[in-house]
C-alpha cells in the first residue's frame, strides 16, 4: 500500500514554528529546505533586498552558473514550499527571548514564536565615498574575482585600495587580465606588497581618487584629486562589509569586527551556532567572503544542526516523561514538542 502525504503550500504566517529563518537568500532557503525535509515547521521571513540584486547572474554555482539571482531565489522558495515550509515577505524588526524560545516581531506589526532561530540576513556593502562607484556597482564596478572576474577578463582593470586586502585583490584580478592598475587612494601598499605588485606587472598610481569618469554608460577612466585621469574600463573595490543584524540587539547578539579587517560579522562556530543559545547564523551575515554556493552549504549545515538540537531536546523531555508519572499534561507536552500537529514518531 502506498501512502502519499499531502503538503499544503501557504504564503501565510502561522503563530509559531519550530524554526524561524530570517533572510531568504541561498543560506536561508537551503537551511529551510533541510528543516522542511526533516518535517520541521519552518518559515522564511524575507525582506526582499538581496545583496546580489544588481548582478546579471550567479557564478561559481555548479549546474546554475549564470542564473539570474531572482530566478535562483524563486526556485528555492518553490522547493521549500514543496515540503511544507512557509516563505513570507516581511522585515524583522526585533527578536526577544520568551522562555526557551523567541518572539520574532515584524516591522508591520505581525509577530511569530520560534523554538530556534536561523539568521541569514546577509550584509550591507559600504562603498567608499567616491562619485560613480554606487551608480556603477554590480556592472563595471565589481569586488569579487570569482563572481565577476571571467566577465571582465582581459580588460583594463583598476583596483581602488581602501583596506588591507587591496593588494590581494589586485593580484587576484591580475590572474584575469594583464592590464591591472592599483590606485593607492587611502591605503598605499607596504614595501613588500609594492614588490609583489611590481613583480606581477601591476602598476601603482599614488594619490587619492576623486571620481570615476563615465561616458556612454560605461567607465572610461579614474580621475585623481590632482586632476590626472588614468584610462580604465573596470574598477574593483573592496567595500566594508557589515552584517545586517540590528534586530538581534535585545538578545545581546551584535556584529563584531571580522578577523580579516574587512568589516563586521555575527560570530558563529563552523556549524553556525552563535553564543546565544538557540540562535544559528549562516551565509554572509557571519562569513563575509562567502559566495552563493558557500552560503547555501552553510545554510544546509546549520539546518541539520538545528534539527539535531531539537531532537536532543525532545528526547530529553520524552525520557523525563517516560520515567515520571504519565499525567495528561506531560503526555500532551511531549506530543507537542516531539511532533507538533503531525504527531509523527510517537
TrEMBL record:
<dbReference type="InterPro" id="IPR036188">
    <property type="entry name" value="FAD/NAD-bd_sf"/>
</dbReference>
<dbReference type="Pfam" id="PF07992">
    <property type="entry name" value="Pyr_redox_2"/>
</dbReference>
<dbReference type="InterPro" id="IPR023753">
    <property type="entry name" value="FAD/NAD-binding_dom"/>
</dbReference>
<keyword id="KW-0285">Flavoprotein</keyword>
<protein>
    <submittedName>
        <fullName>Thioredoxin reductase</fullName>
    </submittedName>
</protein>
<dbReference type="GO" id="GO:0004791">
    <property type="term" value="F:thioredoxin-disulfide reductase (NADPH) activity"/>
</dbReference>
<keyword id="KW-0560">Oxidoreductase</keyword>
<dbReference type="InterPro" id="IPR050097">
    <property type="entry name" value="Ferredoxin-NADP_redctase_2"/>
</dbReference>
<feature type="domain" description="FAD/NAD(P)-binding">
    <location>
        <begin position="17"/>
        <end position="293"/>
    </location>
</feature>
Amino acid at each position: 500500500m502506498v501512502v502519499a502525504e499531502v503538503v499544503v503550500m501557504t504564503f501565510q504566517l502561522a503563530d509559531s514554528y519550530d524554526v524561524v529563518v530570517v533572510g531568504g537568500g541561498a543560506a536561508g532557503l537551503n537551511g529551510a529546505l533541510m528543516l522542511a525535509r526533516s518535517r520541521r515547521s519552518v518559515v522564511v521571513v524575507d525582506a526582499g533586498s538581496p545583496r546580489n540584486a544588481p548582478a546579471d547572474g550567479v557564478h561559481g554555482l555548479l549546474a546554475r552558473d549564470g542564473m539570474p539571482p531572482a530566478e535562483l531565489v524563486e526556485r528555492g522558495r518553490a522547493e521549500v514550499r514543496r515540503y511544507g515550509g512557509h516563505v513570507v515577505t516581511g522585515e524583522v524588526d526585533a527578536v526577544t527571548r520568551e522562555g526557551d524560545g523567541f518572539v520574532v516581531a515584524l516591522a508591520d506589526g505581525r509577530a511569530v514564536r520560534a523554538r530556534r532561530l536561523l539568521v541569514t540576513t546577509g550584509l550591507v556593502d559600504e562603498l567608499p565615498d567616491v562619485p560613480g562607484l554606487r551608480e556603477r556597482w554590480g556592472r563595471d564596478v565589481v569586488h569579487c574575482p570569482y563572481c565577476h572576474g571571467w566577465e571582465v577578463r582581459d580588460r583594463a582593470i583598476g583596483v581602488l585600495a581602501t583596506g588591507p586586502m587591496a593588494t590581494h585583490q589586485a593580484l587576484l584580478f591580475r590572474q584575469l587580465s594583464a592590464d591591472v592598475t592599483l590606485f593607492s587612494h587611502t591605503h598605499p601598499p607596504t614595501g613588500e606588497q609594492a614588490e609583489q605588485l611590481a613583480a606581477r606587472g601591476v602598476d601603482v598610481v599614488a594619490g587619492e581618487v576623486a571620481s570615476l569618469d563615465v561616458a556612454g554608460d560605461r567607465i572610461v577612466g579614474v580621475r585623481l584629486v590632482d586632476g590626472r585621469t588614468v584610462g580604465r574600463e573596470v574598477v574593483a573595490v573592496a567595500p566594508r562589509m557589515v552584517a545586517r543584524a540590528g534586530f538581534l540587539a535585545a538578545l545581546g547578539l551584535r556584529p563584531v569586527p571580522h578577523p580579516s579587517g574587512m568589516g563586521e560579522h555575527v560570530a558563529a562556530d563552523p556549524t553556525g551556532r552563535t553564543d546565544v543559545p538557540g540562535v544559528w547564523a549562516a551565509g554572509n551575515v557571519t562569513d563575509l567572503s562567502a559566495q552563493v554556493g558557500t552560503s547555501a552549504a552553510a545554510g544546509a549545515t546549520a539546518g541539520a544542526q538545528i534539527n539535531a538540537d531539537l531532537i536532543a531536546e525532545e528526547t530529553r523531555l520524552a525520557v523525563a516523561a517516560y520515567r515520571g508519572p504519565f499525567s495528561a499534561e506531560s503526555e500532551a507536552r511531549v506530543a507537542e514538542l516531539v511532533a507538533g500537529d503531525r504527531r509523527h514518531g510517537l
